[in-house]
Write a structure and sequence with these properties.
- The protein is α/β, with parallel strands linked by helices.
- Helices cover 27% and strands 19% of the residues.
- It folds into 2 domains: 81 residues; 230 residues, TIM Barrel.
- A 9-stranded mixed beta sheet has the order 14-13-12-11-10-7-15-16-17. It has a 3-stranded antiparallel beta sheet with strand order 5-1-6. A 3-stranded antiparallel beta sheet has the order 2-3-4, with helices on one face.
- The chain is elongated and about 85 Å long.
- The structure holds iron/sulfur cluster.
- Iron/sulfur cluster binds next to loops.
């Protein structure tokens, strides 16, 4: 601490984030990824609020010798971790300190922005080619709210016409980073698949086929993976899917194309996880993912195996950009649209529909989502109890499980 006859201005470095919740404080240095917490410290909490207050110039005057030992230790901690510093005060003039605010370039754009380009925002358009009142696998009725497969429609079997897919995708085909995702109850059942494939051969974009396994017609899969720019994402249910797996991966086409095939194993319990892990050790499969499925009866499985711990959150080490973007939007769901066989479009399947492709354009629907939607914009500042939690800037974005369960503290913290 400098000599005790003079006063100093205390400030935080621009890459340091200070979060307060009541009398608790968290300091996150997004360069060194270090976290320091101060619990039940009203003095430090008040000091941090002032350090983040633009009307106070993001500075607090410190007179060495006047502050208590708690504040003294806090200031030493900031200086030692290169998270903040002191500048000698000359008169009452505050030093110019700038603290970045969470602003994303051109987001949201002005409402009548002449250069509005849907390609700046869209990443995936999922078309559900079919939906069924009988889920492809029994017991997965709510899967489509958790991951993009097994489209369910309690009113019966329906299909989306190929023309509706093409008319709504072709204006955007070729936008860098945009992917067409084809999904449904089980697209190997889709009655107009041959017709659609003819058109898909002319696409510039990548196409991802989301297919439950087992599926109705495995013969179709070879046709799909032979398309240029295609990928396949299997959603494997237990126990049938794992027992049929050897037959799938023994195919000659599989050996040639396996780098473009993902295996998502749908698990509902630790026992299912262990069964899959044992099978995988014999297959040598790469590109394997586990998708927990919430069936409304297995909350304990989620609580014990999926919920975030403090160590998980600390280990995520978000960078400066992520900390800011998470205060404005949901970077997990951002840029995705889901088109149902009825034509209804969702930015997230757990939110109300945005509109319908039969009377609106994708561009119009994207604008509606950007300005008024919750699918792309829901962040932890908007949900309880996260909005009052010390870790709200560090936690991953609100996910589909949380939206579906309407439970946002997917953690053992609060
Ligand atoms: S309450 Fe919300 S913000 Fe806090 S740790 Fe849990 S999930 Fe993250």
């Amino acid at each position: 601490m400098p000599g005790n006859k003079e006063s100093y201005w205390l400030f935080l470095e621009p890459f340091v984030h200070c979060v307060t919740a009541g009398d608790d404080v968290l300091i996150y240095n997004s360069v060194t990824h270090t976290v320091t917490e101060y619990k039940s410290s009203p003095g430090i909490s008040s000091l941090c609020r002032d350090l983040d207050d633009p009307s106070k110039g993001f500075t607090v005057r410190i007179s060495p010798g006047d502050e208590n030992s708690e504040i003294r230790d806090f200031i030493s901690g900031l200086r030692n971790s290169h998270s903040g510093d002191l500048i000698r005060a000359i008169g009452d003039t505050r030093p110019a300190v700038i603290r970045p605010r969470p602003v994303l370039v051109n987001y949201p754009p002005p409402e009548e922005f002449p250069g509005f380009n849907v390609g700046d925002y869209l990443k995936n358009i999922y078309f559900s080619l079919n939906a069924s009142e009988i889920p492809a696998a029994h017991g997965y009725t709510w899967a489509m709210y958790q991951f993009p497969c097994f489209t369910y429609n309690e009113r019966g079997y329906t299909e989306l016409a190929p023309a509706d897919v093409l008319k709504n995708y072709l204006p955007y085909d070729g936008i860098p980073g945009l992917t067409m995702d084809l999904t449904g109850a089980d697209i190997t059942l889709y009655s107009r698949l041959d017709e659609l494939i003819t058109h898909l051969k002319k696409l510039v974009s990548s196409v991802v086929f989301h297919i439950p396994f087992p599926c109705h017609d495995p013969e179709v899969i070879e046709q799909l993976i032979r398309l240029k720019n295609s990928r396949i994402s299997f959603y494997i249910t237990l126990p049938e899917g794992t027992s049929l797996l050897p037959g799938l991966i023994d195919n000659p086409w599989f050996r040639l194309k396996k780098s473009r095939i993902d295996f998502n194993f749908i698990i509902r319990s630790l026992e299912e996880y262990n069964n899959v892990a044992a099978i995988l050790s014999e297959t040598g499969l790469k590109r394997v993912f586990f998708l927990p499925y919430y069936d409304k009866e297995n909350m304990e499985f989620f609580r014990e195996n999926i919920f975030l711990s403090r160590d998980d959150i600390m280990g995520s080490k978000p960078g400066q950009r992520q900390v800011y973007s998470r205060q404005i939007l949901n970077d997990q769901g951002f840029g995705k649209l889901y088109v149902m066989p009825s034509g209804e479009v969702f930015a997230n399947m757990n939110e109300a529909p945005l509109g319908n492709i039969h009377n609106e354009t994708i561009t119009g629907l994207v604008k509606r989502e950007i300005y008024t939607g919750k699918g792309w914009n829901l962040n932890r500042m908007q949900v309880s109890p996260c909005s009052g939690c010390l870790y709200r800037f560090l936690c991953p974005p609100v996910g589909n499980y949380e939206r579906f369960m309407q439970r946002f503290n997917f953690c053992d913290i609060l």
